[in-house]
Specification:
This protein folds into four domains: 92 residues, 3-Layer(aba) Sandwich (Rossmann fold); 56 residues, Dna Ligase, domain 1; 129 residues, D-amino Acid Aminotransferase, Chain A, domain 1; 84 residues, Alpha-Beta Complex (Glycinamide Ribonucleotide Synthetase, Chain A, domain 4), CATH 3.90.600.10. Strand 1, helix 1 and strand 2 form a beta-alpha-beta unit. Helices cover 29% and strands 29% of the residues. It is globular and about 55 Å long.
């Protein structure tokens, strides 16, 4: 098969790395890719949001399957355009991608389907939002309705913080159209777990669980980020809990989307809060693999990914199974200094080959480019150093041993990924 992966981050490197090993593969492209992806796929200088450019390339190169990594092109309708052109595409249509593209849509679906989630209300009027907040008290969560590049969620410990978040979205227009409406919801306490399932519109095939570390600093301190590390599986996700999540959250989501005429195909990422009573509640749905969770999942995947992706596209998930390596995997993100704010310029990144030589380790690239001096940073999150091990401690030790071989004074990482469960509420 001739396959195109869309995106240029660590998630897409992990997907390309897994797909490249498939015996079904003839040729693999990635648009736009990065310096690390170029080692396993032919990179193409087309932006992930350039729907028409991607469609033209897929037609011209005889692409037989497009795997869409990020959420923005999904919400923009890339899968719709490819499907209309007769090209198979893994991911939801624009109508189905509203599960992530509109938090209000997702919450309303939960209400209709009886999916356990936090109490909420939707507002476009700041005064009405503030009245709800005062009536319900803090802590409270304020979310911009649309895609806000991971910056649209405020977990407010005080009424003042919550009202400031409302004004930022509805008065100041900080998030543009994405913040024209806000969802204000109950603050949930417990343990966060990420859960993934493949969906074909009717059938859902459970994949695996993971835990993400959002805060930038050790001990879960500092601002939220896109993710500073993750590990899989999550210890809380027992077979009994997985069955509950599938029955109470994933399958009702599929059923509700089908009833709305928006059948959901692709990967469904359920961000969960497991309460003190052990019951799962849905924080959010994402319509793509998480980043960096995808890196940990691909390290553990024992099955050929291509038949699984094709089964989701073709409505045949009931005919396939997925196998996993039993040992856990962990990924530590290396970011450019200054992240998640403006990053500082940095020099070349050296020692990557030495890092990858550590047993069980794979180094995934996120924001990298190749320059005259070698591999350079081109974003905030730059590398994902991933490892498998007999247990989580061994995986963690291998990942950090690899990081210690990387010579990059302009980068940093958390040193406590996998040491203890990350606390606190979810980000966008």
């Amino acid at each position: 098969m001739r396959v195109l992966v869309v995106g240029g981050g660590g998630r897409e490197h992990a997907l390309c790395w897994a797909i490249a090993r498939s015996p079904l593969l003839t040729r693999l492209y990635c648009a736009p890719g990065n310096a690390g992806i170029a080692a396993v796929a032919e990179t193409v200088p087309i932006a992930a949001e350039d729907v028409e450019g991607l469609l033209s390339f897929a037609r011209g190169e005889g692409i037989e399957l497009v795997v869409v990594g990020p959420e923005a092109p999904l919400v923009a309708g890339l899968v719709d355009r490819l499907t209309a052109a007769g090209i198979k595409a893994f991911g939801p249509t624009a109508a189905a991608a509203a599960l992530e593209g509109s938090k209000g849509f997702m919450k309303d679906l939960c209400a209709r389907q009886g999916i356990p989630t936090a109490a909420y209300a939707r507002f476009s009027d700041p005064a009405a939002a503030k009245r709800w907040i005062r009536e319900n008290g803090a802590p409270v969560v304020v979310k911009a309705d649309g895609l806000a590049a991971g910056k649209g969620v405020t977990v407010a410990a005080t009424l003042h913080e919550a009202e400031t978040a409302v004004d930022a979205a509805l008065v100041d227009g900080r998030f543009g159209h994405a913040g024209a409406e806000v969802v204000v919801e109950e603050f949930l306490e417990g343990d966060e777990v990420s859960f993934f399932a493949l969906c074909d519109g009717t059938t859902a095939l459970p994949l695996a669980s993971a835990r993400d570390h959002k805060r930038v600093g050790d001990g879960d301190r500092g601002p939220n980020t896109g993710g500073m590390g993750a590990y899989s599986p999550a210890p809380q996700m027992t077979p009994t809990l997985q069955a509950r999540v599938m029955a109470e959250i994933v399958q009702p989501t599929l059923d509700g989307m089908a009833a709305l005429g928006r059948p959901y195909r692709g990967v469904l990422f359920a961000g969960l809060m497991i309460g003190p009573d052990g019951a799962p509640r849905l924080l959010e749905h994402n319509v793509r693999f998480g980043d960096p969770e995808c890196q940990a999942l691909m390290m553990r995947l024992a099955s050929d990914p291509l038949p699984l992706l094709l089964a989701a596209v073709d409505g045949r998930l009931s005919e396939v199974r997925v196998d996993w390596h039993p040992d856990p995997a962990l990924v530590v993100v290396m970011a450019a200094k200054g992240y998640p704010a403006a990053v500082e310029p940095s020099g070349p990144i050296r020692g990557l080959e030495a890092a990858a030589a550590v047993e069980g380790v794979t180094v995934f690239h996120a924001g990298t480019k190749r320059g005259e001096a070698g591999i350079m940073a081109s974003g905030g999150r730059v590398l994902g150093v991933a490892a498998r091990g007999d247990d989580l401690d061994q995986a963690r030790a291998r990942a950090y041993a690899a990081i210690d071989r990387i010579d990059w004074p302009g980068g940093f990482c958390r040193r406590d990924i996998g040491l203890r469960p990350p606390a606190g509420p979810s980000s966008d």
